[in-house]
């Protein structure tokens, strides 16, 4: 049986380095470190990122998360031969990430061009117990030579960039006490200082020297080892920034503080520091692990992989930051925040770590004024949240795509203007958070204000259609980005109505329960002035309905567009391959989907539609979906379960698990697909596990695939920890509760206090 905790590569292939760098990224939500190898190769892409440290490098550049100075590179010479796997002979090779411990390990048996064999082991971790800490360990053993001369160079290398773009000024580099290296760099536009501190030690007496180069501080070590003698080298590093929350409101000199902290670590070994981190990881796995008794061992591995990355991508330490579309695993999407967080990532934290979920929503509240400004600049009221955002909540979506080398012109990017469904996505997440947690304080202090601004936007964005006698929403892009400039996108219209309905409900709740707060909100936000327009919107917003064939149109024109055969694109590993054969203007006029808006709608608001409607539309739209979006497969899995097709659901789930872990060796070069990993959790817990809240009540309607004998997981609901075991024969739910929790299992009402067993 394969280890469900291990992601491994048993063969060195230079062409696949970037994929494994992303898959095996180490991190803790503050730091993200790609798994680039210690020695340098042309094909690899070193990446080291810190949450929130965005910068714009210059004119015509996009704000992005900069690649900070590298701490992991080592140049190793053994008897004068530079260790490099492109030279010599590799007798044995294993690179693996132990997700249980969050440690990256590489074991190599290498024969140099001089026919001398060496065993090398490389270890690395980013600490979960100390967000600023990362550490490396190298073990070298000479197998043939009586005396081996070892020379090693490592240090702090600030020559890193983002695809050729340099984001930093060099401020200072020094060595203290002939031991501790310190390098300070500053972002060119935002002025954020990065403080990198490091020292190297060995289990034997070494000769060491330091050198300074442009944007580089190096330590060189020399030592001789006998045959079979083991050399152990450890490198301990700390990273701080002037953006760190603990330094914002005090006079601490970070330079001195960070130096003091690195000195304090001198007495602690790599293993001692690792064990502290493992203890924190044990806490995470104890409350988040999902156990599946499956015919396919890969299922457990894929789920653990998604959980691991959900943990390391999330800045749960600071509500000023959010999750980028690639987490902290690469330069893809510039580190920007999308709707991915609210719809695909936040639910995991909502049911396992509500405090983290709350902070992700607070990021939106912190930037509410920027959303108001964007709406106002477009002539609308309320808040229009940016399609892509960074630290300050401004719109970061580039206006144009990459230049066409033949025409010298670039295609216009319309997402910032037209993908306005993000307003409803955020509102949906606020409601879901409140219903699951019953966090009245958050709703009263932040949530209701955001909901109100979202609703005001929708009312002002809609226009009256005299023919229909309805309000319509024109010229948008839904989640399906292959259909641009459409009117009455079904997903957008339904979610906008949902937003306004839920806003009114929350306002009425506050008015009934806390009149003083309501009056205060009314004085600040003029609530009473909005009721009439809100009610009119709810009554009059146009919602596309089933045609005579039972199909709900995705928008006003979709069903009249040309139908083409998409089999070619479904069988190809090439994403967006259809754009090689057709222009975007041509694709827009076809019934071809990147992902299905109807299926997304059924996932979020499925209770509003009949089972037969969901099934018929799922099949219709799935037959026209290329699944070029990494978000598509898992959502199709969940919705297939709504009409009881566990076979289709499981096939979609399998494909979702392969988006990063599959055989496509270039799938993740620029980083893992963060939202896709969140949707894997969704497909297991909300899909096969059947977990759902409806108006603050927990429902569990499971449907396991035939490949699974049992599913075990833990969730939090309204401050209660619930352990759930589902099999085909029964459901066991246990908790330690001081009061009864009413819930529904397979639509039948139960009361849980400590233990509940339901035979199926």
Please explain how this structure is put together.
The protein has 760 residues and is of the alpha+beta class. The chain has three domains: 282 residues, Distorted Sandwich (Beta-galactosidase, Chain A, domain 5); 400 residues, Glycosyltransferase, CATH 1.50.10; 72 residues, Maltose phosphorylase, domain 3, CATH 2.60.420.10. Helices cover 34% and strands 25% of the residues. A hairpin with a 3-residue loop joins β12 and β13. α10 crosses α12. The protein is globular. It starts with 5 loop residues before the first strand and ends with a strand. The model has no long low-confidence stretch (mean pLDDT 96).
Helix content: 25-40%
Arrangement of strands in the largest sheet: 1-7-8-9-10-17-14-13-12
Radius of gyration: 27 Å
**What structural class do helix, strand and pairing data support?**
alpha+beta
Output the CATH topology of the largest domain.
Glycosyltransferase
The total of beta strands comes to 30
Largest sheet: 9 strands, antiparallel
Uncertain spans: none
Number of alpha- plus pi-helical segments: 22
Shape: globular
| Average pLDDT reading | 96
Give the second-level CATH assignment, the architecture of the largest domain.
Alpha/alpha barrel
- What is the total domain count? 3
CATH class of the largest domain: Mainly Alpha
Distance between the termini: 30 Å
What share of residues are in beta strands? 15-25%
């Amino acid at each position: 049986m394969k280890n469900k905790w291990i992601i491994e590569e048993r063969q060195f292939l230079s062409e696949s380095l970037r994929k494994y760098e992303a898959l095996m990224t180490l991190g803790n939500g503050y730091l993200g470190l790609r798994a680039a190898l210690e020695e340098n190769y042309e094909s690899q892409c070193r990446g080291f990122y810190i949450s929130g440290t965005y910068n714009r490098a210059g004119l015509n550049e996009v704000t992005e998360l900069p690649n900070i100075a590298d701490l992991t590179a080592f140049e190793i010479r053994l008897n004068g031969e530079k260790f490099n796997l492109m030279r010599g002979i590799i007798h044995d090779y294993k690179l693996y990430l132990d997700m249980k411990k969050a440690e990256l390990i590489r074991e190599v048996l290498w024969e140099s061009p001089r026919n001398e064999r060496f065993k090398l082991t490389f270890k690395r971790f980013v600490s979960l117990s100390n967000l600023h800490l990362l550490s490396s360990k190298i073990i070298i053993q000479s197998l043939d030579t009586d005396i081996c001369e070892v020379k090693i160079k490592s240090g702090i290398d600030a020559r890193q960039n983002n695809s050729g773009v340099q984001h930093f000024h060099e401020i200072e580099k020094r060595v203290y006490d002939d031991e501790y290296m310190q390098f300070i760099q500053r972002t060119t536009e935002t002025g954020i200082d990065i403080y990198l501190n490091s020292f190297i030690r060995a289990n034997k007496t070494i000769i060491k020297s330091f050198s300074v180069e442009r944007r580089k501080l190096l330590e060189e070590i020399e030592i001789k080892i006998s045959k079979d003698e083991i050399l152990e080298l450890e490198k301990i590093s700390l990273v701080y920034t002037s953006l760190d929350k603990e330094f914002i409101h005090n006079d601490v000199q970070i330079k001195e503080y960070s130096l003091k902290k690195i000195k304090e670590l001198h007495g602690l070994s790599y293993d001692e520091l690792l064990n502290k981190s493992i203890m924190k990881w044990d806490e995470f796995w104890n409350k988040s692990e999902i156990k599946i008794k499956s015919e396919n061992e890969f299922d457990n591995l894929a789920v653990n992989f998604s959980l691991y990355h959900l943990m390391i991508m999330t800045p749960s330490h600071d509500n000023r930051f959010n999750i980028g579309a690639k987490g902290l695993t690469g330069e893809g999407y510039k580190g920007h925040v999308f709707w991915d967080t609210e719809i695909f990532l936040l639910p995991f934290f909502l049911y396992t770590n509500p405090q983290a979920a709350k902070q992700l929503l607070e990021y939106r509240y912190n930037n509410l004024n920027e959303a108001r400004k964007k709406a106002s600049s477009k002539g609308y009221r309320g808040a229009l949240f940016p399609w892509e955002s960074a630290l300050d909540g401004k719109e970061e979506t580039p206006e144009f795509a990459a230049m066409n080398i033949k025409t010298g012109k670039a295609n216009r990017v319309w997402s910032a203007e037209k993908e306005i469904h993000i307003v409803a996505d955020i509102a949906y997440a606020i409601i879901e958070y409140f219903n699951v947690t019953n966090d009245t304080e958050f709703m009263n202090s932040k949530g209701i204000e955001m909901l109100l601004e979202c609703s005001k936007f929708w009312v002002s964005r809609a226009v009256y259609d005299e023919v229909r006698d309805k309000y319509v929403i024109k010229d948008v892009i839904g989640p399906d980005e292959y259909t641009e400039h459409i009117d009455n996108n079904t997903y957008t219209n339904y979610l906008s109505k949902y937003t306004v309905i839920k806003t009114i409900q929350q306002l009425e709740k506050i008015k009934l329960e806390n009149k003083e707060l309501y009056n205060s909100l009314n004085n600040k936000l003029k609530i009473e002035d909005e009721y009439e327009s809100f009610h009119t919107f709810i009554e009059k917003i146009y919602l596309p309905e089933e045609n005579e064939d039972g199909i709900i149109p995705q928008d006003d024109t979709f069903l009249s567009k040309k139908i083409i055969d998409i089999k070619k694109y479904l069988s190809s590993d090439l994403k967006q391959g259809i754009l090689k054969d057709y222009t975007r203007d041509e694709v827009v006029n076809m019934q071809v989907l990147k992902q299905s808006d109807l299926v997304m709608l059924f996932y979020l608001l499925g209770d509003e539609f009949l089972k037969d409607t969901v099934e018929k539309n799922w099949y219709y739209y799935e037959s026209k979906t290329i699944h070029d979006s990494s978000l598509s497969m898992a959502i199709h899995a969940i919705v297939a379960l709504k009409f009881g097709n566990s076979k289709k659901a499981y096939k979609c789930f399998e494909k979702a698990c392969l988006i990063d872990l599959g055989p496509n060796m270039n799938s993740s070069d620029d980083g893992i697909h963060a939202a896709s990993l969140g949707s894997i959790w969704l497909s297991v817990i909300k899909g096969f596990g059947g977990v759902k809240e409806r108006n603050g009540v927990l429902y569990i309607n499971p449907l396991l695939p035939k490949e699974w004998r049992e599913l075990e997981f833990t969730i939090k609901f309204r401050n209660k920890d619930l352990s759930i075991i589902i099999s085909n024969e029964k459901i066991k739910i246990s908790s330690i509760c001081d009061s009864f929790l009413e819930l529904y299992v397979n639509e039948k009402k139960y009361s849980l206090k400590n233990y509940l067993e339901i035979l199926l």
